[in-house]
Amino acid sequence: MKPKVTMIAWNQNDNYVVTAVNNHLLKVWNSCTGQLLHDLVGHADEVFVLETHPFDSRIMLSAGHDGNIFIWDITKGTKTKHYFNMIEGQGHGAVFDCKFSPDGQHFACTDSHGHLLIFGFGCSRPYEKIPDQMFFHTDYRPLIRDSNNYVLDEQTQQAPHLMPPPFLVDVDGNPHPTKYQRLVPGRENCADEHLIPQLGYVATSDGEVVEQVIGQQTIDQDEQGLEPSILDGMIRQLQLEQDQRTGADQESASSAPQNGEGTPRRG
To answer: How far is CA 34 from CA 7, 29, 127, in A?
Structure first.
């Protein structure tokens, strides 16, 4: 097999370069001389995640499709910590991405089964206030493209970034109680009655009809004459100002003399 590099990362002070090779080895190189310093052995499948510690130049994190997460001391070529992402009844979960927190005390990983894994020091009590399954109800909604090839949500015909904040649901699409809906940015100060999503029946790909969250509207905005959000209001105001400037420019151009003689009329 011809070796191929699947991922590359510099350490925090750029003295070392770590490469992941498709033969499941990690190689540590001197970035100035190109000398191979260490072969890091431990992974059993390809590695697509290499993350350097935010301030400790000795530490590098690796993770891959074999479900293994390693913390390495690349100056010594040794493994410091190891975690295997075993999922009960389903085998291991491939790790797709990892990131350190800015203080270097925690790191978070995502896997192929939709799990968010959080590692660090201290207790896990702050994370126990949220349910085990959390998805946005719009996560798997189909998209379409308009005549300008821009992406739109198929159901609401809106651009995704202009849609109201989504609702939190479980893996089956059932909405969580209102106390969890307040965790969504943009819903922190909503009244309880505005945190209850609209439910409806939708057909799945295999023809089964299930009850799911289908509505986005949470308040009677049209009746109250309110903007859906501050951001939407700013966008509309900027568009209005641009339209006014365009109209003024066109009026000035049409009132100017074509032969260059005389003084143009002031608006």
So the answer is: 17, 6, 44
Does residue 267 have a pLDDT over 50? no
**What fold, for 5-125?**
Methylamine Dehydrogenase; Chain H (2.130.10)
CA atoms of 195 and 215, how far apart (whole Å): 11
19 is written with which tokens?
């490469």
Tell me, letter by letter, the H, E, C secondary structure of the chain. CCCCEEEEEECCCCCEEEEEECCCCEEEEECCCCCEEEEECCCCCCEEEEEECCCCCCEEEEEECCCEEEEEECCCCEEEEEEECEECCCEECCEEEEEECCCCCEEEEEECCCCEEEEECCCCHHHHHCCCCCEECCCCCCEEECCCCCEEECCCCCCHHHCCCCCEECCCCCECCHHHHCCCCCCCCCCHHHHCCCEEEEECCCCCEEEEECCCCCCCHHHHCCCCCHHHHHHHHHHHHHHHHHHHHHHHHHHCCCCCCCCCCCC
Q: pTM for the complete prediction?
A: 0.57
95-100 and 91-92 as β-strands: parallel, antiparallel, unpaired? Answer: unpaired
Q: Convert the pLDDT of each residue in 95-153 to its tens digit.
A: 999 999 998 888 999 988 888 888 888 777 777 777 878 888 888 788 899 889 999 88
Extents of the domains making up the chain = 5-125, 135-213
